[in-house]
Structure formats: C-alpha cells, structure tokens
From TrEMBL:
UniProt cross-references to PROSITE patterns, sorted A to Z: HTH_LYSR
Signal peptide: none
Gene3D superfamilies linked to this entry: Periplasmic binding protein-like II, Winged helix-like DNA-binding domain superfamily/Winged helix DNA-binding domain
Protein name per UniProt: LysR family transcriptional regulator
GO molecular function: DNA binding; DNA-binding transcription factor activity
Keyword Transport among UniProt keywords: no
Classification of source organism: Bacteria, Pseudomonadati, Pseudomonadota, Betaproteobacteria, Burkholderiales
Length: 289
C-alpha cells in the first residue's frame, strides 16, 4: 500500500468505525452496532487505511485482527474521539444520565473494561450501572428506576429484545472430585436467582441427592468458591477462569439449557440508544452460543 502524506484531517466517523471493528473483532457486529451495512464499514476502513498509508486490520475469512500499525493506532484513535467528544460536551451542558441494570448472570468479567470503553466513547452520557438479579432489575425497570435492563429470560414476560443465547454447564475446578456416598455439593447465589431455581428443579427431577454448601455473594464470589474446590455450580463458562471444567456429562447430571439474554429499554434518546447498541453488540461478541 503506497504511503501518502498526512495532511488532511482524519474522518472521525471512519476512526469511530475502526474502533468498533477493533473492539468487536467483526465487521458484521460493527455494522450492526453502527446500524449500517458491512460494505459501508469496509469502505470507511479502506478510506482510513488509504489516508494513513498503512493497513490497520488483517482480514481473513474467519477473523479480523489488528495489524501492528492498527494496534499502535488504537490509543491515538481513542484519544482523538475523546477530545472530539469533550469539545462538543463543553457546549451541550450537563451530561445525560443513563441508568442500566445488568443481571449478575450476564455481567461477566468483561463488564468493567466494557464500561470504561462506553464512558470514553460517550462522555456526554453519565452511565450508571446497577448489578442484581434479573427479577429484581425487571421490577426496578417497570418502576422506571432503570432506563434499560440486560437480563436473563424471566418467566411470565414476553417483552425485551433477545440478543443471544448462552450455554450453561455444571462447572467445577479442574482438581475437584465428588465424595462417594455424599450428596452433590452445590455452590450457588442466594435467592432470588432464576438460575438457582432452574438448577435445583432439574436436579430434583433427576432424583439426584444434592446439598448447597456455599450460598450467596455475586457470580464472581461463586466462581471463586468453585475454583477453590468447594463444589460445582450451574454457570455460563465465561464466568469462570480458564481451566474450569464441565463435569455434567461425567457425573450424569441433567443437561442445562441455553439461556437467552434480553435487552429491555425505555429510552428513545439517540445518544443513549447508541450506547445501548454498543453494549448489546459487545455482549453478542463476548457470548459464544
């Protein structure tokens, strides 16, 4: 690719598109988030690469990854967009508040980094996150205490946009072994927890002896208890560190279903909707059906 002198200002829309592809690792998901076509995304990136005189992304039929130049450009791209947003927000007054509830069984270890990216990309929004159970969050959403809620499927409701479905398993530490003659030790969140209810009903229906040995805390605490070898838990695999194993088949445990992730939203504000679109796309990318 022929280098060109850097003289004209960069297209901020193309820079933002580049960051979306870099963060999501997919032209398709970036197009969904930006509500445009994959062809439009490709064209913007081609123009940006031509403008910079280097390739930013390496494309193959299976994946998209940053080139060395693309990796170096990410920090500059974020700084450029942040400066642009700060310049605009200086003349738009107080930031708009966007309160999002996220189920503890959805949030996952990627949430802090994702929240930081959303704050950096939307400095005109004051994004507030509330973590809780799906049932609790939906009650707060119905009372309009939340602008949006990202939750698991809740019985009795048919509203909300299904973003994806996530597999669950009976997960244990790699060194964990059941004790002969003793009930299956279960590690779980405290009530109310839809996953806890589902898991207990499946175990009872299979007439398997089980006992709760660790109850309470958030999903992060439950994951730590599992990795410490205290017992097994019904969780999505992405919630646990690398090395956790699904022991369901080995122990003859009932299969756990894939559980939907739904987005509920009251907001119609364009800026808030754009942030929610990015949040939804990030979780579609993080959750592998």
């Amino acid at each position: 690719m022929t280098k060109q002198p850097v003289q004209r200002p960069l297209d901020l829309d193309a820079v933002a598109t580049f960051l979306q592809v870099a963060e999501l690792g997919s032209f398709t998901r970036a197009a969904e988030t930006l509500q445009t076509t994959q062809a439009a995304v490709s064209l913007k990136l081609k123009r940006l690469e031509d403008r910079l005189g280097c390739r930013l992304l390496e494309r193959t039929p299976r994946y998209v990854e940053l080139s060395p130049q693309g990796t170096a450009f990410v920090a500059h791209a974020r700084a450029l967009l942040e400066a642009h947003h700060h310049a605009l927000s200086a003349f738009t007054g107080a930031r708009q508040r966007l309160v999002i509830g996220i189920s503890d069984h959805v949030a996952g270890p990627e949430l802090p980094a994702l929240a930081a990216r959303l704050n950096a990309r939307h400095p005109d929004l004051l994004i507030v996150l509330r973590i809780g159970s799906s049932g609790e969050l939906l009650q707060r959403y119905d009372r309009r205490e939340l602008d949006a809620a990202l939750v698991r499927l809740h019985s009795g409701r048919t509203d909300g946009e299904v973003l994806t479905e996530e597999p669950f398993g009976w997960l244990a530490a790699p060194h964990w072994q059941p004790r002969a003659g003793e009930p299956l030790p279960i590690v779980t969140l405290a009530e109310p927890c839809g996953v806890r209810q589902m898991a207990s009903k499946l175990l009872d229906a299979a007439t398997l002896p089980w006992a709760e040995v660790f109850v309470g805390g958030g999903v992060g605490t439950v994951s730590q208890a599992v990795m410490a070898g205290l017992g097994i838990a019904a969780l999505a695999p992405r919630m646990l560190p690398l090395g956790a194993v699904d022991v369901g088949a080995r122990l003859g445990l009932p299969a756990l279903p894939r559980l939907p992730v739904l987005l509920h939203s009251h907001t119609r504000d364009a800026r808030a909707c754009a942030a929610l679109d990015e949040l939804a796309a990030a979780y579609r990318s993080a959750i592998r059906p």
